[in-house]
Amino acid sequence: MISRLGRGLLPTSLTGRLVATLVAVVVLTALLLGVLTSLATQRLLYAQLDHDVPNAMQFARAQVMDRPAGSPLSDSGPGLGPERHDGPRTETLIASIRDNVPTGRVLDEKGHPERLSRAALQRLRDVPVGGVTRTVDLPGYGSFRLQSKAFGDGVVLAGVSTRKVDEAVGWLLILEIPLGIAAVTLAGLSGLWLVRRQLRPLRRVAATAHKVSTLPLASGEIGRTVRVPDSLTDERTEVGAVGAALNTLLAHVEQALDERHRSEQQVRQFVADASHELRTPLSTIHGYAELSRRRRPPDPDQLAQAMGKVEAEATRMSTLVQDLLLLARLDAGRPLARDQVDLTKLVLETVGDARVVAPDHRWLMDLPDEPLEVMGDEQRLHQVVTNLLNNARRHTPPGTSVRVAVAPAPTAGDDVVLSVTDDGPGMSPQVVRTAFERFSRGDSSRTRESGGAGLGLSLVQAITTAHGGTVSVTSRLGRTRFEVRLPSTGRGGAHRSGQGRHQRLEVGPHLTGER
User: Fold this and answer.
1) Helices 343-357, 378-394: inter-axial angle, 10-degree rounding
2) Which partner for 144 in 159, 273, 290, 313 could form a disulfide, CB atoms 3.0-4.6 Å apart?
3) Where, residue-wise, is CATH 1.10.287.130 in the chain?
4) Count of other CB atoms within 10 angstroms of residue 508
5) Looking at domain 215-334, which of 3.40.1440.60, 3.40.190.10, 3.50.50.60, 1.10.287.130 is its CATH number?
6) Is the pTM for the entire model greater than 0.85?
7) Closest by alpha carbon to 488, among 498, 473, 500, 501?
8) What is the pLDDT of residue 363?
9) Element (H, E) at 103
10) Nearest Cα to 151, choosing from 100, 115, 97, 101?
Protein backbone atom coordinates (compact mmCIF):
# COMPACT_ATOMS: atom_id res chain seq x y z
CA MET A 1 0.00 0.00 0.00
CA ILE A 2 2.83 2.38 0.90
CA SER A 3 4.72 1.59 -2.29
CA ARG A 4 1.58 2.20 -4.35
CA LEU A 5 1.02 5.51 -2.59
CA GLY A 6 4.64 6.50 -3.26
CA ARG A 7 4.33 5.64 -6.92
CA GLY A 8 1.12 7.66 -7.09
CA LEU A 9 2.82 10.75 -5.64
CA LEU A 10 5.73 10.63 -8.09
CA PRO A 11 5.34 12.39 -11.44
CA THR A 12 4.58 10.14 -14.38
CA SER A 13 6.96 11.76 -16.87
CA LEU A 14 10.70 11.14 -16.89
CA THR A 15 11.32 14.89 -16.73
CA GLY A 16 9.17 15.21 -13.63
CA ARG A 17 10.84 12.26 -11.95
CA LEU A 18 14.34 13.57 -12.63
CA VAL A 19 13.45 17.06 -11.38
CA ALA A 20 11.75 15.62 -8.31
CA THR A 21 14.82 13.51 -7.60
CA LEU A 22 17.08 16.53 -8.03
CA VAL A 23 14.94 18.65 -5.69
CA ALA A 24 14.86 15.85 -3.11
CA VAL A 25 18.64 15.58 -3.22
CA VAL A 26 19.01 19.36 -2.81
CA VAL A 27 16.55 19.38 0.11
CA LEU A 28 18.38 16.57 1.88
CA THR A 29 21.72 18.22 1.20
CA ALA A 30 20.47 21.57 2.51
CA LEU A 31 19.09 19.95 5.67
CA LEU A 32 22.31 18.05 6.25
CA LEU A 33 24.44 21.14 5.70
CA GLY A 34 22.19 23.21 7.96
CA VAL A 35 22.37 20.69 10.79
CA LEU A 36 26.13 20.22 10.42
CA THR A 37 26.73 23.99 10.22
CA SER A 38 24.62 24.63 13.31
CA LEU A 39 26.35 21.89 15.29
CA ALA A 40 29.79 23.09 14.21
CA THR A 41 28.96 26.71 15.10
CA GLN A 42 27.56 25.67 18.47
CA ARG A 43 30.63 23.57 19.22
CA LEU A 44 32.95 26.45 18.27
CA LEU A 45 31.10 28.98 20.42
CA TYR A 46 30.93 26.54 23.31
CA ALA A 47 34.71 26.14 23.05
CA GLN A 48 35.07 29.91 23.36
CA LEU A 49 32.78 29.95 26.38
CA ASP A 50 34.78 27.16 28.00
CA HIS A 51 37.81 29.49 28.13
CA ASP A 52 35.89 31.73 30.61
CA VAL A 53 34.81 28.90 32.90
CA PRO A 54 38.23 28.56 34.68
CA ASN A 55 38.25 32.31 35.49
CA ALA A 56 34.84 32.02 37.06
CA MET A 57 35.96 28.94 38.97
CA GLN A 58 39.05 30.75 40.28
CA PHE A 59 36.97 33.62 41.65
CA ALA A 60 34.38 31.28 43.14
CA ARG A 61 37.11 29.24 44.85
CA ALA A 62 38.64 32.36 46.37
CA GLN A 63 35.32 33.32 47.88
CA VAL A 64 34.68 29.87 49.25
CA MET A 65 38.12 29.53 50.75
CA ASP A 66 38.13 33.07 52.26
CA ARG A 67 34.69 33.22 53.81
CA PRO A 68 33.61 31.48 57.04
CA ALA A 69 31.46 28.40 56.84
CA GLY A 70 27.79 29.25 56.41
CA SER A 71 28.44 32.82 55.24
CA PRO A 72 26.94 33.83 51.85
CA LEU A 73 28.98 34.30 48.71
CA SER A 74 30.07 37.81 47.73
CA ASP A 75 28.14 39.57 45.02
CA SER A 76 31.27 41.05 43.47
CA GLY A 77 34.90 40.24 42.94
CA PRO A 78 37.73 40.65 40.51
CA GLY A 79 36.37 40.62 37.05
CA LEU A 80 32.87 39.74 38.30
CA GLY A 81 31.53 42.87 39.96
CA PRO A 82 29.78 45.91 38.49
CA GLU A 83 33.15 47.31 37.52
CA ARG A 84 33.95 44.23 35.34
CA HIS A 85 35.06 45.03 31.80
CA ASP A 86 37.01 41.91 30.84
CA GLY A 87 35.87 38.32 30.19
CA PRO A 88 32.78 37.19 28.33
CA ARG A 89 29.87 39.60 28.12
CA THR A 90 27.30 37.08 29.34
CA GLU A 91 25.75 35.89 32.58
CA THR A 92 28.09 34.20 35.09
CA LEU A 93 27.15 31.69 37.75
CA ILE A 94 29.04 31.09 41.01
CA ALA A 95 27.75 28.71 43.66
CA SER A 96 28.95 26.52 46.51
CA ILE A 97 27.71 23.64 48.59
CA ARG A 98 28.98 23.57 52.18
CA ASP A 99 27.51 21.44 54.94
CA ASN A 100 25.02 20.25 52.29
CA VAL A 101 23.68 23.79 52.01
CA PRO A 102 23.80 25.22 48.44
CA THR A 103 24.14 28.93 47.84
CA GLY A 104 24.71 30.79 44.61
CA ARG A 105 24.34 33.88 42.49
CA VAL A 106 23.93 34.73 38.80
CA LEU A 107 25.65 37.89 37.65
CA ASP A 108 24.22 39.50 34.54
CA GLU A 109 26.28 41.11 31.78
CA LYS A 110 26.71 44.29 33.90
CA GLY A 111 27.68 42.37 37.06
CA HIS A 112 24.35 42.75 38.88
CA PRO A 113 23.77 39.68 41.10
CA GLU A 114 20.60 37.63 41.32
CA ARG A 115 20.03 34.89 43.86
CA LEU A 116 19.38 31.44 42.49
CA SER A 117 15.98 29.97 43.09
CA ARG A 118 15.47 26.86 45.20
CA ALA A 119 14.78 24.80 42.07
CA ALA A 120 18.01 25.97 40.49
CA LEU A 121 19.99 25.24 43.66
CA GLN A 122 18.41 21.80 43.84
CA ARG A 123 19.49 21.18 40.22
CA LEU A 124 23.08 22.15 41.17
CA ARG A 125 23.09 19.39 43.83
CA ASP A 126 22.82 16.83 41.01
CA VAL A 127 25.86 18.11 39.07
CA PRO A 128 28.67 15.53 39.30
CA VAL A 129 31.83 16.75 40.98
CA GLY A 130 34.86 16.84 38.72
CA GLY A 131 36.87 19.03 36.38
CA VAL A 132 34.75 18.32 33.30
CA THR A 133 32.94 21.28 31.76
CA ARG A 134 29.32 20.35 30.98
CA THR A 135 26.10 22.01 29.98
CA VAL A 136 23.51 22.27 32.77
CA ASP A 137 19.99 23.60 32.33
CA LEU A 138 18.82 25.61 35.33
CA PRO A 139 15.05 26.21 35.62
CA GLY A 140 14.29 29.89 35.06
CA TYR A 141 17.89 30.84 34.12
CA GLY A 142 18.66 28.88 30.98
CA SER A 143 21.69 26.73 30.17
CA PHE A 144 25.19 27.22 31.59
CA ARG A 145 28.57 25.78 30.80
CA LEU A 146 29.95 25.06 34.26
CA GLN A 147 32.40 23.04 36.31
CA SER A 148 32.00 21.52 39.78
CA LYS A 149 35.08 21.01 41.96
CA ALA A 150 35.64 20.01 45.57
CA PHE A 151 37.71 22.37 47.74
CA GLY A 152 38.24 21.68 51.40
CA ASP A 153 34.96 20.88 53.10
CA GLY A 154 32.78 22.10 50.22
CA VAL A 155 32.05 22.05 46.51
CA VAL A 156 32.42 25.08 44.27
CA LEU A 157 30.43 25.47 41.02
CA ALA A 158 31.15 28.13 38.41
CA GLY A 159 30.13 28.70 34.80
CA VAL A 160 28.88 31.04 32.07
CA SER A 161 25.51 31.25 30.34
CA THR A 162 25.00 29.78 26.82
CA ARG A 163 22.16 32.22 26.04
CA LYS A 164 24.06 34.20 23.43
CA VAL A 165 25.39 31.04 21.83
CA ASP A 166 21.89 29.59 21.65
CA GLU A 167 20.58 32.85 20.20
CA ALA A 168 23.33 32.89 17.58
CA VAL A 169 22.64 29.28 16.59
CA GLY A 170 18.91 30.03 16.49
CA TRP A 171 19.44 33.01 14.20
CA LEU A 172 21.68 30.86 12.03
CA LEU A 173 18.90 28.28 11.69
CA ILE A 174 16.37 31.00 10.91
CA LEU A 175 18.69 32.37 8.23
CA GLU A 176 19.26 28.90 6.77
CA ILE A 177 15.54 28.29 6.21
CA PRO A 178 14.94 30.99 3.56
CA LEU A 179 18.33 30.30 2.05
CA GLY A 180 17.42 26.62 1.82
CA ILE A 181 14.05 27.44 0.27
CA ALA A 182 15.75 29.71 -2.24
CA ALA A 183 18.32 27.00 -3.05
CA VAL A 184 15.59 24.38 -3.52
CA THR A 185 13.58 26.72 -5.75
CA LEU A 186 16.63 27.59 -7.82
CA ALA A 187 17.58 23.92 -8.06
CA GLY A 188 14.06 22.99 -9.18
CA LEU A 189 13.88 25.67 -11.88
CA SER A 190 17.42 25.13 -13.16
CA GLY A 191 16.95 21.35 -12.98
CA LEU A 192 13.72 21.58 -14.98
CA TRP A 193 15.43 23.67 -17.63
CA LEU A 194 18.50 21.45 -17.73
CA VAL A 195 16.56 18.17 -17.81
CA ARG A 196 14.28 19.40 -20.57
CA ARG A 197 17.30 20.53 -22.54
CA GLN A 198 19.11 17.22 -22.08
CA LEU A 199 16.01 15.16 -22.89
CA ARG A 200 15.22 17.13 -26.04
CA PRO A 201 17.15 14.62 -28.21
CA LEU A 202 15.22 11.77 -26.58
CA ARG A 203 11.95 13.48 -27.49
CA ARG A 204 13.16 13.70 -31.10
CA VAL A 205 13.90 9.96 -31.03
CA ALA A 206 10.42 9.34 -29.62
CA ALA A 207 8.93 11.55 -32.33
CA THR A 208 10.66 9.42 -34.96
CA ALA A 209 9.23 6.24 -33.42
CA HIS A 210 5.77 7.82 -33.25
CA LYS A 211 6.00 8.86 -36.89
CA VAL A 212 6.89 5.29 -37.89
CA SER A 213 3.91 3.99 -35.92
CA THR A 214 1.56 6.08 -38.09
CA LEU A 215 2.85 4.62 -41.37
CA PRO A 216 0.68 2.05 -43.20
CA LEU A 217 2.75 -1.09 -42.58
CA ALA A 218 -0.02 -3.65 -42.90
CA SER A 219 0.43 -4.32 -46.60
CA GLY A 220 2.40 -3.34 -49.66
CA GLU A 221 6.08 -2.72 -50.12
CA ILE A 222 7.44 -0.54 -47.32
CA GLY A 223 10.83 0.59 -48.61
CA ARG A 224 12.80 2.97 -46.41
CA THR A 225 10.95 4.70 -43.61
CA VAL A 226 12.11 7.62 -41.47
CA ARG A 227 15.32 7.45 -39.45
CA VAL A 228 16.72 9.07 -36.33
CA PRO A 229 19.17 11.81 -37.46
CA ASP A 230 22.84 10.86 -37.44
CA SER A 231 23.51 13.55 -34.86
CA LEU A 232 21.44 11.54 -32.36
CA THR A 233 23.03 8.13 -32.98
CA ASP A 234 26.35 8.54 -31.17
CA GLU A 235 26.48 5.33 -29.14
CA ARG A 236 28.86 6.92 -26.62
CA THR A 237 25.82 8.69 -25.15
CA GLU A 238 22.66 7.15 -23.70
CA VAL A 239 20.35 8.96 -26.11
CA GLY A 240 22.65 8.10 -29.02
CA ALA A 241 22.56 4.42 -28.05
CA VAL A 242 18.74 4.53 -28.06
CA GLY A 243 18.72 6.31 -31.43
CA ALA A 244 21.18 3.85 -32.99
CA ALA A 245 19.19 0.90 -31.63
CA LEU A 246 15.96 2.37 -33.04
CA ASN A 247 17.56 2.83 -36.47
CA THR A 248 18.78 -0.77 -36.41
CA LEU A 249 15.32 -1.94 -35.39
CA LEU A 250 13.69 0.09 -38.17
CA ALA A 251 16.10 -1.39 -40.72
CA HIS A 252 15.24 -4.92 -39.57
CA VAL A 253 11.52 -4.15 -39.60
CA GLU A 254 11.74 -2.70 -43.11
CA GLN A 255 13.67 -5.72 -44.34
CA ALA A 256 11.19 -8.12 -42.73
CA LEU A 257 8.20 -6.26 -44.15
CA ASP A 258 9.75 -6.10 -47.61
CA GLU A 259 10.50 -9.82 -47.41
CA ARG A 260 6.92 -10.43 -46.36
CA HIS A 261 5.68 -8.38 -49.33
CA ARG A 262 7.93 -10.26 -51.73
CA SER A 263 6.81 -13.56 -50.23
CA GLU A 264 3.17 -12.58 -50.65
CA GLN A 265 3.84 -11.57 -54.23
CA GLN A 266 5.59 -14.87 -54.89
CA VAL A 267 2.71 -16.79 -53.33
CA ARG A 268 0.21 -14.93 -55.49
CA GLN A 269 2.33 -15.51 -58.59
CA PHE A 270 2.86 -19.14 -57.60
CA VAL A 271 -0.88 -19.71 -57.19
CA ALA A 272 -1.58 -17.97 -60.49
CA ASP A 273 1.08 -19.93 -62.38
CA ALA A 274 0.14 -23.24 -60.79
CA SER A 275 -3.52 -22.62 -61.58
CA HIS A 276 -2.64 -21.81 -65.19
CA GLU A 277 -0.39 -24.83 -65.57
CA LEU A 278 -3.05 -27.13 -64.15
CA ARG A 279 -5.84 -25.48 -66.11
CA THR A 280 -4.15 -26.08 -69.46
CA PRO A 281 -4.07 -29.90 -69.27
CA LEU A 282 -7.49 -29.94 -67.63
CA SER A 283 -8.92 -27.91 -70.51
CA THR A 284 -7.32 -30.28 -73.01
CA ILE A 285 -8.69 -33.32 -71.20
CA HIS A 286 -12.13 -31.75 -71.00
CA GLY A 287 -12.07 -30.83 -74.71
CA TYR A 288 -11.05 -34.26 -75.97
CA ALA A 289 -13.50 -35.97 -73.65
CA GLU A 290 -16.30 -33.82 -75.04
CA LEU A 291 -15.10 -34.43 -78.62
CA SER A 292 -15.17 -38.19 -78.12
CA ARG A 293 -18.85 -38.06 -77.11
CA ARG A 294 -20.04 -36.02 -80.06
CA ARG A 295 -20.02 -38.84 -82.64
CA ARG A 296 -22.38 -41.77 -82.28
CA PRO A 297 -21.27 -44.41 -82.76
CA PRO A 298 -17.74 -43.33 -81.74
CA ASP A 299 -15.05 -43.30 -84.37
CA PRO A 300 -12.38 -45.75 -83.15
CA ASP A 301 -9.49 -43.76 -84.66
CA GLN A 302 -10.77 -40.46 -83.28
CA LEU A 303 -11.42 -42.03 -79.89
CA ALA A 304 -7.92 -43.50 -79.77
CA GLN A 305 -6.43 -40.13 -80.65
CA ALA A 306 -8.54 -38.39 -77.97
CA MET A 307 -7.58 -40.93 -75.30
CA GLY A 308 -3.91 -40.53 -76.24
CA LYS A 309 -4.16 -36.76 -75.76
CA VAL A 310 -6.00 -37.23 -72.46
CA GLU A 311 -3.31 -39.62 -71.26
CA ALA A 312 -0.50 -37.24 -72.28
CA GLU A 313 -2.08 -34.25 -70.53
CA ALA A 314 -2.85 -36.33 -67.45
CA THR A 315 0.79 -37.40 -67.34
CA ARG A 316 1.88 -33.78 -67.69
CA MET A 317 -0.48 -32.69 -64.93
CA SER A 318 0.67 -35.55 -62.70
CA THR A 319 4.31 -34.53 -63.18
CA LEU A 320 3.49 -30.93 -62.28
CA VAL A 321 1.60 -31.99 -59.17
CA GLN A 322 4.49 -34.24 -58.10
CA ASP A 323 6.94 -31.38 -58.53
CA LEU A 324 4.73 -29.08 -56.47
CA LEU A 325 4.40 -31.69 -53.72
CA LEU A 326 8.16 -32.21 -53.69
CA LEU A 327 8.74 -28.47 -53.34
CA ALA A 328 6.21 -28.33 -50.52
CA ARG A 329 7.93 -31.21 -48.70
CA LEU A 330 11.34 -29.60 -49.12
CA ASP A 331 10.01 -26.26 -47.90
CA ALA A 332 8.60 -28.03 -44.84
CA GLY A 333 12.07 -29.44 -44.09
CA ARG A 334 11.14 -33.06 -44.52
CA PRO A 335 14.26 -35.27 -44.39
CA LEU A 336 15.59 -36.98 -47.50
CA ALA A 337 17.24 -40.37 -47.78
CA ARG A 338 20.87 -40.49 -46.64
CA ASP A 339 22.83 -43.04 -48.67
CA GLN A 340 26.18 -43.21 -50.36
CA VAL A 341 25.68 -41.88 -53.89
CA ASP A 342 28.29 -42.31 -56.61
CA LEU A 343 28.02 -38.96 -58.36
CA THR A 344 30.28 -40.11 -61.22
CA LYS A 345 28.04 -43.04 -62.07
CA LEU A 346 24.94 -40.85 -61.77
CA VAL A 347 26.35 -38.36 -64.31
CA LEU A 348 27.17 -41.17 -66.75
CA GLU A 349 23.57 -42.42 -66.60
CA THR A 350 21.89 -39.03 -66.96
CA VAL A 351 24.13 -37.90 -69.83
CA GLY A 352 23.42 -41.17 -71.62
CA ASP A 353 19.68 -40.52 -71.27
CA ALA A 354 20.11 -36.93 -72.50
CA ARG A 355 21.93 -38.16 -75.61
CA VAL A 356 18.95 -40.34 -76.49
CA VAL A 357 16.48 -37.48 -76.01
CA ALA A 358 18.61 -34.84 -77.80
CA PRO A 359 21.02 -36.50 -80.26
CA ASP A 360 21.53 -33.18 -82.05
CA HIS A 361 23.46 -31.76 -79.07
CA ARG A 362 27.08 -32.57 -78.35
CA TRP A 363 27.37 -34.05 -74.86
CA LEU A 364 30.79 -33.96 -73.14
CA MET A 365 31.90 -35.19 -69.73
CA ASP A 366 34.90 -34.49 -67.49
CA LEU A 367 35.05 -37.20 -64.82
CA PRO A 368 37.73 -38.31 -62.33
CA ASP A 369 39.39 -41.72 -62.60
CA GLU A 370 37.99 -42.76 -59.25
CA PRO A 371 34.40 -42.29 -58.12
CA LEU A 372 33.36 -39.30 -56.07
CA GLU A 373 30.66 -40.02 -53.53
CA VAL A 374 28.26 -37.80 -51.64
CA MET A 375 25.79 -38.58 -48.90
CA GLY A 376 22.21 -38.01 -50.00
CA ASP A 377 19.09 -39.14 -51.82
CA GLU A 378 20.11 -40.76 -55.09
CA GLN A 379 16.71 -40.30 -56.72
CA ARG A 380 16.62 -36.58 -55.92
CA LEU A 381 20.22 -36.02 -56.99
CA HIS A 382 19.41 -37.80 -60.24
CA GLN A 383 16.55 -35.31 -60.63
CA VAL A 384 18.99 -32.41 -60.09
CA VAL A 385 21.31 -33.53 -62.89
CA THR A 386 18.39 -34.39 -65.20
CA ASN A 387 16.77 -30.99 -64.69
CA LEU A 388 20.05 -29.19 -65.45
CA LEU A 389 20.54 -31.20 -68.64
CA ASN A 390 16.92 -30.66 -69.68
CA ASN A 391 17.34 -26.94 -69.10
CA ALA A 392 20.42 -26.87 -71.34
CA ARG A 393 18.67 -28.94 -73.99
CA ARG A 394 15.52 -26.80 -74.09
CA HIS A 395 17.20 -23.41 -74.19
CA THR A 396 20.06 -24.06 -76.63
CA PRO A 397 19.87 -24.76 -80.37
CA PRO A 398 20.92 -28.09 -82.00
CA GLY A 399 24.67 -28.49 -82.27
CA THR A 400 25.35 -26.85 -78.92
CA SER A 401 28.05 -28.47 -76.80
CA VAL A 402 27.03 -29.27 -73.22
CA ARG A 403 29.85 -30.23 -70.87
CA VAL A 404 29.13 -31.99 -67.55
CA ALA A 405 32.00 -32.11 -65.05
CA VAL A 406 32.44 -33.65 -61.59
CA ALA A 407 35.50 -32.75 -59.53
CA PRO A 408 36.64 -32.02 -56.00
CA ALA A 409 36.22 -28.40 -55.00
CA PRO A 410 39.34 -26.37 -55.88
CA THR A 411 39.34 -24.81 -52.42
CA ALA A 412 39.97 -26.59 -49.14
CA GLY A 413 37.06 -28.57 -47.76
CA ASP A 414 35.16 -31.78 -48.34
CA ASP A 415 33.00 -30.58 -51.23
CA VAL A 416 32.26 -31.98 -54.67
CA VAL A 417 31.46 -29.66 -57.57
CA LEU A 418 29.07 -30.71 -60.32
CA SER A 419 28.94 -28.26 -63.25
CA VAL A 420 26.90 -28.11 -66.45
CA THR A 421 28.33 -25.71 -69.06
CA ASP A 422 27.03 -24.98 -72.54
CA ASP A 423 28.16 -22.71 -75.38
CA GLY A 424 24.65 -21.59 -76.26
CA PRO A 425 23.29 -18.05 -76.66
CA GLY A 426 23.45 -17.34 -72.93
CA MET A 427 20.93 -15.77 -70.56
CA SER A 428 20.00 -12.15 -69.99
CA PRO A 429 20.87 -10.59 -66.59
CA GLN A 430 17.17 -10.49 -65.68
CA VAL A 431 16.80 -14.21 -66.37
CA VAL A 432 19.96 -14.97 -64.38
CA ARG A 433 18.55 -13.09 -61.35
CA THR A 434 15.27 -15.06 -61.44
CA ALA A 435 16.59 -18.38 -62.74
CA PHE A 436 15.84 -20.32 -59.56
CA GLU A 437 12.46 -18.74 -58.83
CA ARG A 438 9.43 -20.95 -59.22
CA PHE A 439 7.62 -20.79 -62.59
CA SER A 440 10.46 -18.65 -63.91
CA ARG A 441 11.11 -18.99 -67.65
CA GLY A 442 13.39 -17.56 -70.25
CA ASP A 443 10.41 -15.76 -71.81
CA SER A 444 6.99 -14.67 -70.60
CA SER A 445 4.97 -16.93 -72.89
CA ARG A 446 3.02 -19.87 -71.54
CA THR A 447 3.00 -22.05 -74.66
CA ARG A 448 4.20 -25.61 -74.50
CA GLU A 449 6.85 -24.86 -77.03
CA SER A 450 8.56 -22.48 -74.61
CA GLY A 451 9.48 -25.33 -72.29
CA GLY A 452 8.16 -26.83 -69.05
CA ALA A 453 6.28 -25.31 -66.18
CA GLY A 454 9.29 -23.40 -64.86
CA LEU A 455 9.87 -25.58 -61.80
CA GLY A 456 13.02 -27.40 -62.93
CA LEU A 457 15.66 -25.01 -61.62
CA SER A 458 13.68 -24.21 -58.45
CA LEU A 459 13.68 -27.96 -57.73
CA VAL A 460 17.44 -28.03 -58.36
CA GLN A 461 17.95 -25.32 -55.77
CA ALA A 462 15.54 -26.84 -53.24
CA ILE A 463 17.06 -30.33 -53.47
CA THR A 464 20.61 -28.98 -53.35
CA THR A 465 19.82 -26.88 -50.29
CA ALA A 466 18.20 -29.89 -48.59
CA HIS A 467 21.53 -31.74 -49.08
CA GLY A 468 23.46 -28.89 -47.45
CA GLY A 469 24.84 -27.63 -50.76
CA THR A 470 24.60 -24.56 -52.94
CA VAL A 471 23.81 -23.88 -56.59
CA SER A 472 24.76 -20.87 -58.73
CA VAL A 473 24.66 -19.75 -62.35
CA THR A 474 26.82 -17.47 -64.47
CA SER A 475 26.07 -16.61 -68.06
CA ARG A 476 27.36 -14.58 -70.96
CA LEU A 477 27.11 -14.86 -74.71
CA GLY A 478 28.51 -18.27 -75.70
CA ARG A 479 28.86 -19.65 -72.15
CA THR A 480 26.34 -20.53 -69.46
CA ARG A 481 27.51 -22.46 -66.39
CA PHE A 482 25.44 -24.00 -63.59
CA GLU A 483 27.50 -25.13 -60.60
CA VAL A 484 26.22 -27.41 -57.81
CA ARG A 485 28.43 -27.77 -54.73
CA LEU A 486 27.67 -30.73 -52.43
CA PRO A 487 29.34 -31.99 -49.23
CA SER A 488 31.42 -35.08 -49.91
CA THR A 489 31.60 -38.27 -47.84
CA GLY A 490 35.39 -38.09 -47.99
CA ARG A 491 35.64 -41.36 -49.93
CA GLY A 492 37.41 -41.80 -53.25
CA GLY A 493 41.10 -41.47 -53.89
CA ALA A 494 40.80 -38.52 -56.24
CA HIS A 495 38.93 -36.50 -53.72
CA ARG A 496 41.09 -37.37 -50.79
CA SER A 497 44.23 -36.25 -52.53
CA GLY A 498 42.68 -33.27 -54.23
CA GLN A 499 44.51 -34.35 -57.37
CA GLY A 500 43.00 -36.98 -59.66
CA ARG A 501 43.36 -37.73 -63.32
CA HIS A 502 40.21 -36.92 -65.27
CA GLN A 503 38.85 -38.64 -68.29
CA ARG A 504 37.18 -36.61 -70.99
CA LEU A 505 34.33 -38.41 -72.66
CA GLU A 506 32.19 -37.45 -75.61
CA VAL A 507 28.82 -39.14 -75.90
CA GLY A 508 27.71 -39.48 -79.50
CA PRO A 509 26.20 -42.30 -81.46
CA HIS A 510 28.85 -44.44 -79.77
CA LEU A 511 30.41 -43.91 -76.38
CA THR A 512 34.12 -43.33 -76.76
CA GLY A 513 36.67 -42.44 -74.14
CA GLU A 514 39.94 -40.56 -74.32
CA ARG A 515 42.39 -40.33 -71.44
Assistant:
1) 40
2) 159
3) 215-334
4) 11
5) 1.10.287.130
6) no
7) 498
8) 93
9) strand 101-107
10) 97
